[in-house]
Design brief:
Layout (H helix, E strand, L loop, with lengths): L12 E4 L9 H16 L3 E6 L13 H12 L5 E4 L4 H14 L2 E4 L3 H9 L13 H13 L8 E4 L14 E5 L16 E3 L1 H11 L4 E5 L3 H14 L5 E5 L2 E3 L6 H10 L13 H6 L4 H11 L6 E3 L1 H12 L4 E3 L1 E3 L1 E7 L5 E7 L8 E7 L3 E6 L3 H6 L2 E4 L4 E7 L3 E8 L2 H6 L4 E2 L8 E9 L2 E9 L11 E4 L3 E11 L2 E11 L1
Parallel strand pairs: 1-2, 2-3, 8-9, 10-11, 12-24, 14-20, 18-21, 22-26
Antiparallel strand pairs: 4-5, 5-6, 6-7, 13-23, 14-17, 15-16, 18-19, 19-20, 22-23, 24-25, 25-26
Helix pairs in contact: 1-10, 3-5, 6-7, 10-11
This protein binds one RNA strand through strand 6, helix 6, helix 7, helix 10 and strand 11.
RNA sequence: GCCGCGGUAGUAUAGCCCGGCCAAGUAUGCGGGCCUUUCAAGCCCGUGACCCGGGUUCAAAUCCCGGCCGCGGCACCA
């Protein structure tokens, strides 16, 4: 990671400030992870701050506070202090009195249209509310707090350059009235009706919390300019800001509104739907935190938008999970395979869970002279093209007949060398006895495909969240295990990538 | 429309501030080969980019100007 401007070891303070109106997604992971990584790099401090100051249009989700904490922990992000803005309104109110006394802010009790007229015509200097005395403003402020004004009847504005080239900068709104009897706040209920805007609360908190470096998306660039006026009124020094572009994960649903819409339609998968680019969705799909961390560090802090392709994320993820994912044999849309003329009565094959041999092994007993197995329907084609096939880790067979309900084969030979000699394809197989039903959920863009099959007996011992590789199919995460007592009936897995 | 920020291979990123070592590095993808009891991993080879046009300079991806394109903001959202 590139160094931070004017960063001193031990003195860097970063923050991650989500709005708890929803869970966090991959885009939020960027400021969260980078803030954390820089904190670690400079042995500083990181703050988690919930920005929940709009109970009306961005009503906080009560459970989101904890879900966000959980997601951050899962990502490996550790923060040192935590704040909730809705619990800090008195602090903001006190700053307001100071600003008002200094003549740096004023109560605007005219209509938005009236203000806009003065602002857009460059007449802001002469806007009557702007010219009010500090004493009158203080009095009006108290009236606001006491409830003399209804929603939309008064706001508090911070004085800026009244002729700033960007009109949106001019005398921005710092507080507005929200009728919390109509729109209660999940934490403070209807206790407060005068709420700070993002620019006020974030700016004040960044100072009070000693934040030295802000990492935020570039949609805040104009906000930085607005906030600097507040800092200059208060005589504060503005932190260093690093802006970066937006992040998109190709093929995933990212926008909050689209996610909410799908949730309402009832996808049955909730916030962790594997089609979502939410942290929970990616976790569900078998993406590990380290992969997200590496991706964020690679993407960095450029101003340009980045469109991440899933294969890229998958490649990083694969390199992390490949060494520790058990290889499990599973066949989908199973087809019966009958092997005849086996020269031995019974034999046990020992198959390592990983080609490296580092994950142990399981034993499978096979018995002759006639053996019934299951193979994947997708491999039938291979059997039509190749007369000799090797059953992985077992023996070789000759295909005799491909019928619609079964494949008849004869034992051919034992060794791998022999299979090579014939150029025999190697396929996975499942012994029907003690096998487990498996449902593989495959997210594909907006669709969720499900394919069904059976897995070998060893799959009975898989645990939820375990990452496995179904041989010749791909990596997947065990999502659920259905059992009756100790008897595992079925496992459901979510496909991660090949 | 008005403010602001950007544009390096399919994707992501390095280099740009401090011009030459960049006929542009890395990862991933793609093509080919090797290896391998997986369509995984590993190894080798190849593929492919400095938005366009001017200018400054002995020399420009790097500096300047113009254009084009993309993104963000213009909220009593964050």
């Amino acid at each position: 990671m590139p160094p931070l401007p004017e960063a001193v070891e031990g003195r860097v303070v970063t923050r991650f400030a989500p709005n708890p109106d929803f869970v966090i997604h991959l885009g939020n992971a960027r400021p969260a992870i980078l803030s954390y990584e820089y904190k670690v790099m400079y042995k500083g401090k990181m703050i988690l701050r919930f920005e929940d100051t709009d109970p009306r249009t961005k009503t906080p989700l009560p459970e989101a506070y904890e879900l966000i904490r959980q997601d951050l922990k899962w990502l490996g992000v550790e923060w040192d202090e935590e704040y909730i803005q809705s619990l800090r309104l008195e602090i903001y109110y006190n700053i307001v009195r100071e600003l008002l006394a200094k003549g740096a802010a004023y109560i605007d009790d005219k209509s938005p249209e009236e203000f806009r007229r003065y602002r857009n015509e460059g007449m802001l200097d002469n806007y009557p509310p702007r010219r009010r005395s500090p004493e009158d403003n203080l009095e009006l402020w108290d009236k606001m707090l006491e409830g003399h004004f209804g929603e939309g009847e008064a706001v508090l504005r911070i004085k800026t350059d009244p002729n700033h080239p960007d009109p949106s900068i001019r005398d921005w709104v710092a507080f507005r009235i929200i009728d919390t009897s109509l729109h209660p706040h999940p934490i403070t209920g209807d206790k407060y009706i005068v709420w700070p805007t993002y620019n006020f609360a974030a700016a004040v908190d960044d100072h009070l919390m000693g934040v030295t470096h802000i990492l935020r998306a570039k949609e805040h660039m104009q906000n930085t300019i607005k906030q600097k006026y507040l800092y200059s009124h208060m005589g504060w020094e503005y932190p260093h800001v690093i802006h970066f572009g937006r992040l998109k994960l190709e093929g995933f649903i990212m926008s909050k509104s689209a996610l909410k819409k799908l949730l309402e339609e009832g996808t049955g998968q909730g916030l962790s739907d594997p089609r979502f680019a939410t942290i929970a969705g990616l976790r569900r799909r078998g993406i590990v935190p380290e992969a997200i961390r590496q991706l964020m560090i690679e993407v960095g802090v450029k101003h340009t938008d980045a469109s991440i392709s899933y294969v890229n994320l998958a490649a990083i993820n694969r390199s992390i999970i490949d060494p520790k994912a058990k290889r499990i044999m599973a066949v989908f849309e199973p087809v019966k395979l009958v092997v005849k003329n086996i020269p031995w009565g019974s034999r046990t094959v020992e198959i390592p869970y990983h080609p490296s041999g580092s994950l142990g092994s399981r034993r499978i007993m096979l018995s002759g002279p006639s053996l019934e197995l299951l193979v994947s329907r997708s491999d039938v084609e291979l059997m039509l093209r190749n007369s000799v096939i090797r059953l992985m880790e077992a023996f070789n067979i000759t295909i005799k007949e491909v019928k619609h309900d079964a494949i008849i084969a004869y034992y051919h030979s034992e060794s791998l060398e022999e299979a090579r000699k014939y150029g025999a394809p190697i396929i996975q197989w499942v012994k029907p006895e003690n096998s487990v039903k498996v449902e593989l959920v495959v997210p594909e863009g907006l669709d969720l495909q499900r394919i069904y099959g059976v897995a070998e007996e060893a799959a009975r011992h898989l645990k939820i969240d375990e990452l496995v590789q179904f041989v010749r199919v791909g990596f997947a995460r065990i999502d659920s295990v259905q059992a009756e007592g100790d008897n595992v009936k079925k496992i459901t897995a979510v496909y991660a990538h090949d």
